[in-house]
Amino acid sequence: MKEEFEPKRENPAEPYPQESQKAARTRLIHGVGRTRKWDYDHHVVPPMTSSATFRLDSARRGAQGFVEFGHLSPDSQERGPIYIYDRLDEPTCGMLEEILAVAERSECAVCFASGMAAISAALGILAPSGRHIVSHRTLYGCTYSLMTNWLPRNHVDSSFVNLVETGSLTNAVLPNTRVVYFETPVNPDMQLIDIAAVRREVDMINKTRREEERIWIVVDNTFASPFCQRPIALGADVVVESLTKAIGGFGTDLGGVVCGPRSLHDPLVLYRKDFGGCLSPKSAWPPLVYGLPSLAARMANYQKSAHHIARFLEGHVKVEMVRYPGLSSFPQFELAKAQMTDESGHFSPGSMIYFQLRQASPMDNPGERLIDWIAQNSYCITLAVSLGQIKTLIECPYTMTHAALPPERKADDGLAPGGIRLSVGLEDWHDLTSELAAALKAI
Ligand SMILES: *Cc1c(COP(=O)(O)O)cnc(C)c1O
């Protein structure tokens, strides 16, 4: 009887009309509009759930939950999930996954405890024992370590090639290759890899292969964030990324996600259940409530400041080289404009800058001196790894985030000991450039 007094939409699981036509900045705030992941929908802010286990109404419902888990069916989507235990599935993480799929324009998203847990799950599923990965030669240090220290123990080998050059991929592909893996922009040197060109190359190879032997394109989208680039729309099969960085945005929690076709949903949640790298609801809540809803506004500000700072660095006598995709001097500027755009098609070169200082002699390391000066004297630039946060962060990839890469590989990609990675935050850019100017003057 109560229903008569509570006007309800006929089917709350049904999307709002025109939901999909709303601008990205609106969709990053409202996600799928109505969710089936949480059955009390009067909260304006999604709740942070905290329940390791869930009450089941009957043995039958419990049994059905186990049967349905890892078998995504239209039926269970319509009714909403039967929650059993936090490691299998739970509402806060589920709501975050819905909005991440919206952000990345993917059919599904599955969250993990960290970016590395997401990357290892994606590769664990797509490259089982005996298979081979072709990867770009410069990678986030832990991803490189995963591919060289751990995956080989499972007889999964990787070839590292320069995917910036077209053709290098086809030469490296073996009959057992199943994954092409790269970051774009590459962390930390800011080179770009043309996702559509890789798609064309992989399509040529896949044409000669059976369905189960086809090669998947996996892109780490951490540096750009889904606001600046949606790799799946450009031709990738799967996106992996860290939620710790621009998506989380406030630097409070670790997290990671794999976004891809619906066919990957079940293997991903089953993998997560058994390897156990699930995202805690307490860590899913900040990106759901603060990170994604503020991503568009933060990124618009980061980019504006990054542009001013990159221009300032470019004009400074002590600076040898600056790579920021938004500069017209950027070597791959045309590709940047085509590949890094927001949903409305506006050029979105992101918040990351890589630069090198002029050396006085071959043994001179002015970058380290600059970083040390900033660590001691700077008010608004912080020496710390990580990126995409409201605070501006600076670090030295050669000896810090990319220490795991062998020196020859670093040299090949122009990663010098004094190279500096700057993640631009929300401070006033005048304050940031004046502190950089003071640091450059002091060293
Ligand atoms: C930080 C980072 C990762 C790993 O993410 P975590 O959340 O720290 O595990 C992976 N790829 C790139 C490009 C990163 O910057």
Tell me what the structure shows:
- With 443 residues, the protein is α/β, with parallel strands linked by helices.
- The protein has a domain at 296-442: Aspartate Aminotransferase, domain 1 (Alpha-Beta Complex), CATH 3.90.1150.
- The protein is 38% helix and 13% strand.
- It has 16 helices and 12 strands.
- The chain has a 7-stranded mixed β-sheet with strand order 1-7-6-5-4-2-3, sandwiched between helices. A 5-stranded mixed β-sheet has the order 8-9-12-11-10, covered by helices on one side.
- The longest helix has 34 residues, at 281-314.
- The radius of gyration is 23 Å and the shape is globular.
- The mean pLDDT is 92.
- The protein binds pyridoxal-5'-phosphate.
- Pyridoxal-5'-phosphate binds next to helix 5.
In short:
The protein is α/β, with parallel strands linked by helices and 443 residues long. The chain contains 16 helices and twelve strands. The strands form two sheets. Strands 1-7-6-5-4-2-3 form a seven-stranded mixed beta sheet, sandwiched between helices. A five-stranded mixed beta sheet has the order 8-9-12-11-10, covered by helices on one side.
